[in-house]
What does this fold into?
Amino acid sequence: MKQPGSSQPIKSMSALIKSLKKSRDFIYFTYTESEQPLYISYFRTLINQDMLHRDVLSYVLERNIESLRQLQSAFPIEQVEISDDIDVITKSILSGHVMIRMEENASSCVLVNICGRKERQISKPDIEYNVIGPQEAFVESIEVNLGLIRRRLPISTLTVKEVTIGELSHTCTAVVYIDGIANEDNVEYLLNKLKEVEIDNVTDSSYLIRMLEDNPNSLFPQSINTERPDRVAAVLAEGKIALFVDGTPYVMTLPTTLVEFFSTLEDYNLPWIMASCFRLLRAFAVLFSILATPLYVAILTYHYEIIPKELLETLIASRSKIPFPPVIEAIFLEGVIELLREAGARLPSKVALTVGIVGGIVIGQASVEASLTSNILIIIVALSALSSFTTPIYKMSNTIRLLRFPFMLAAQMMGLFGIMIFSLFVLTHLLRSKSLGRPYLAPFYPTRFSDWKDSIIRLDMSFLSKRPITAQAQIRERFDVEKVKQKKKKIKEMKKSDFDE
It folds into this structure.
């Protein structure tokens, strides 16, 4: 095995020990307390010291061990194996195993897994917070995250396929799906793309997903990253796929559509009329956030005639002392908002809150008094910023923030016509976009009327008896509609009979 960064491949046990001894946290010693001397090696920063003394050393202290097989059966630990493969031994030691040999120059050894990883406790979601529903979030351990999903989907067909990525990091990734429901072509497509990834280090799932997306240059995210186990379980039940990455408290779900970025799990915990109203509110808020400032620039630059007379007088009075054209004024204020957002995201939470409130008030008031911006534009920009926060998925909110600036430039160049042209450009881009090879604008393009029941609006759960066509699930039926109707009918008859009595 050739270690990354070394010129010579490691072919023998002595060469491996010599290489590992260069690290200060590597321990190599001879255990002479037992009847048979044992040569023990491990990284003290990777193992559990209590388990080493309690479950390893104490069990060989007074035993007459004559072979590796006897040594293997001596420990009350599940993951114990014998190996003479240098690649396997190296990988095991670097993942928290203890190597035990009976002879100093032996090439075979026993590998005991006593990994001592420090894991964060399961806590409440920080970004996808909800009032109604489960209050659990993923952590950095892939084993814990997979356990959270298996607890919600206790079925034998829940399948996990692991792929190791990164020449240096050896990051464990897991493709999770429900066998028999998820489309096999989608699973194979994602597994093949994972195996094609060539990179030395994977630090985060978002870092990896950019290499798996169909169009990595697009501003629009083509997968949903979520910290909620209940959301992942719901997506898997629809026939979609989840991508877990060790060391990341987020899980990627795909294929996805544009509509899914504006829905939350809390929508399914509310009455369908209320949930539909909230979804429509989010859709309107997104359009307002993108188009409000560009419309201000276009109308004040080219289309004064469409402004009502009463409002025109107010606008003229507000802008009478401002020396800049509307586009400079708008870009200045939008830039200030983005600076405050970025500062708030990078500072500690208590300081960020102060910077956001004080900075917004002071800069807004000072810019009006200095005749740099108008009062009306401050209101529009503030409402646009608030509207962008209604997007449940953070990645999509970043896209909305950036889209405003090219729209403003298009409005400055050609007015409302420029906004329309750029809107057509964005729409064309969305029509051509795909997620895991599936249409990004589904169910609107291609038109799938059966999926409109759970898109911009959400109908009652009794109407959602089929899985979305976008996922191309092998089994579309989620439950039998006729059985539901019969049960409802029986319940009504029972209630009626009880009332008559």
User: Anything to note?
Assistant: Residues 142-256 form one domain. The chain has three domains: 13-113, 142-256, 268-438.
